[in-house]
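Researcher: Structure for this, please.
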Amino acid sequence: MEELGHRIEISSIPQKWSQNQWGSIIAAQIVVEESIETALVEDGYRPDAILAKRHQIRGFMFYPLGTFFSEQTYVGYVRSIDNLGTRESVPYKRVIQAIENYDLFIV
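Model: Predicted structure, token format:
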């Protein structure tokens, strides 16, 4: 959680978010990250490899354009995971696409 909070702090310098917005974004990112990590392990990827690449994985999940999305986007990812399942979520599909395109190596 501290890593995610620090990343938000660095990446959001031009944005002014309230403490509630920061908390909401971090909470949503934690749910998404844990769901995708679980799915990747179930898909056969090693937990230690996922941990080693967590920063890159987060980039594909949360900042594919190099900047943050809105709070509503991250909360929407959680709803999508809850309603459709992790593997149907946009962040999971981004990670899988990165693996398939050899932009992300998890071995």
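Researcher: Any notable elements?
Model: The mean pLDDT is 88. Residues 38 and 47 are 9 Å apart (CA to CA).
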